[in-house]
């Protein structure tokens, strides 16, 4: 990899001054701290709770309505709830994949700072 891509600041260490390595270390600590926080459920936990609650709510409401006979005996309703749940799960998986890509990008930045 070229040194141009490995530079963390827009100025070389010689031009930056005496605090270059100190500031580089602080930047490294900041990135590692943020990455550690995000990997320990900082972003994923609320998202997982939301989608799990939404799916649970969907199934519960359908079950309650079906037990009281409010839902008509049509075939379309038996496909609607699973389809809605499937759409929620697809959105959930897409969001989790997005977080994984974000973490991969953060690791790349940390490795650039490290080397």
Commentary on this structure:
The protein has one domain (17-114). Helix 3 packs antiparallel against helix 5 (75-114) and helix 4 runs antiparallel to helix 5. It is 83% helix and 0% strand. By secondary structure, the protein is mainly alpha-helical.
What low-confidence regions span 5 or more consecutive residues with pLDDT below 50?
Answer: 1-6
Q: Tell me about the largest β-sheet.
A: none
Rounded mean pLDDT score: 76
Q: How large is the share of residues in beta strands?
A: under 5%
As a percent range, the share of helical residues equals over 70%
Radius of gyration from the alpha-carbon trace, in angstroms: 24 Å
Query: How many distinct folded domains?
Result: 1
Which class of secondary structure composition applies to the elements?
Answer: mainly alpha
Alpha plus pi helix count: 5
Terminal-residue CA separation:
10 Å
- H/E topology pattern: HHHHH
Please tally the β strands and state the result: 0
Apparent shape: rod-shaped
Which structural traits does this protein have?
disordered N terminus; 115 residues; mainly alpha
Provide a concise account of the structure shown.
This protein has 115 residues and is an all-alpha fold.
What's the structural blueprint in terms of helices and strands?
Layout: H1 3-6, H2 13-16, H3 20-42, H4 44-67, H5 75-114
Helix pairs in contact: 3-5, 4-5
């Amino acid at each position: 990899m070229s040194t141009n891509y490995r530079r963390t600041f827009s100025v070389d260490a010689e031009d930056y001054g005496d605090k270059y390595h100190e500031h580089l270390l602080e930047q490294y600590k900041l990135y590692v701290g943020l990455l550690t926080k995000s990997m320990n459920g900082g972003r994923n936990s609320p998202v997982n709770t939301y989608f799990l609650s939404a799916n649970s709510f969907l199934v519960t409401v359908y079950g309650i309505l079906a037990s009281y006979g409010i839902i008509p005996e049509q075939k379309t309703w038996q496909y609607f709830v699973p389809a809605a749940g499937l759409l929620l799960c697809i959105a959930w998986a897409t969001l989790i994949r997005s977080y994984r890509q974000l973490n991969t990008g953060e690791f790349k930045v940390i490795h650039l700072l490290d080397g």
